Amino acid sequence: AKAHTQILLLKMQAALSRLSRLSAVGATGVFTVSQCLYNVDGGERAVMFDQLRGGVRPDVSGEGTHFLIPVIQRPIIFDVRTKPREIPSVTGTKDLQMVNIKLRVLWRPMIDELPKLYRELGTDFDERVLPSIGNEVLKSVVAQYNAEELLSKRAEVSARIKSEMIKRAKTFHLEFDDVAITHLTFGREFMNAIEAKQVASQEAERQQWVVKRAEQERMAVVTRAEGEAEAASIITKAMEKTGNAIVEVRRIDAAKEIAGKLANSRNVVYLPNTAGAGNGNGGGANLLLGLDK
């Protein structure tokens, strides 16, 4: 019985030994396979560095799973999606005014140029390139405009900056989808000068309005005086022809107007004088009495 038990134990030990060897082989195989594969996710590209074939290979690997030779080859992953970047700069205008300007760019690397990009600039190419070319282009373009032109010709300035940025970026294997000015401010002295100029312009416009108003009033006075002079001349000529008849006509018209106003008033009572009729004198004064309500 003891001999049989020992035989069973030896068989079990042999089986466990073979199983452990198989597990080690399997783990080694899985490890080896995983070391021979690499993944490129969506929006990414890969460049292969090969130690035996002259460094960075000219081919660019797309999205998916790819093979490599462990130890000898090493993949470099690049994000090729469009990314925003804001570039601030303080520069001077053509009339020596300081301006604080910010530029927003949407950029991405050229996929076909990724091997050259890695060979020349490495993986932190955006930190090396974008601030330098942004400041260079901003200073060169803004220096060609006056401070007022930066405000009145903002679209033209933005278009020139975009054109120059795209041209400069090609030398560094980068592409710009959009370039726009997002912030533009001037120094306190210039802002005070602009405000003073606006106030002076408004005051000048007000003075022009006052002058035009005075001119219109003068013309109205002249026209009224000419009308009165012409009316006086007509009356004088009429009196020369008819004597005092025209004066009597004016007097009668005035009397009619006064009588009409008195007749329509409720506070005036007309009392004819009848005392003179009884005495046979035929004279006397009529009365107009004002009565309170």
Give the arrangement of secondary structure elements.
Elements: H1 2-35, E1 37-40, E2 44-50, E3 55-61, E4 64-67, E5 73-79, E6 83-92, E7 98-109, H2 114-121, H3 125-142, H4 147-152, H5 154-170, E8 174-186, H6 188-242, H7 245-264, E9 268-271, H8 275-279, E10 287-290
Antiparallel strand pairs: 1-4, 2-3, 2-5, 6-7, 7-8, 9-10
Helix pairs in contact: 3-5
In short:
Helix content is 56%, strand content 25%. With 293 residues, the protein is α+β, with helices and mostly antiparallel strands.
Can you walk me through this structure?
The chain is an alpha+beta fold. 56% of the residues lie in helices and 25% in strands. The protein contains eight helices and ten strands. It has a three-stranded antiparallel sheet, with helices on one face. Strands 6-7-8 form a three-stranded antiparallel sheet. The chain has a two-stranded antiparallel sheet with strand order 1-4. A hairpin with a 5-residue loop joins strand 6 (83-92) and strand 7 (98-109). Helix 3 (125-142) packs across helix 5 (154-170). The longest helix is centred in the C-terminal third of the chain and has 55 residues, at 188-242. It is elongated, with a radius of gyration of 53 Å. It starts with a helix and ends with a strand.
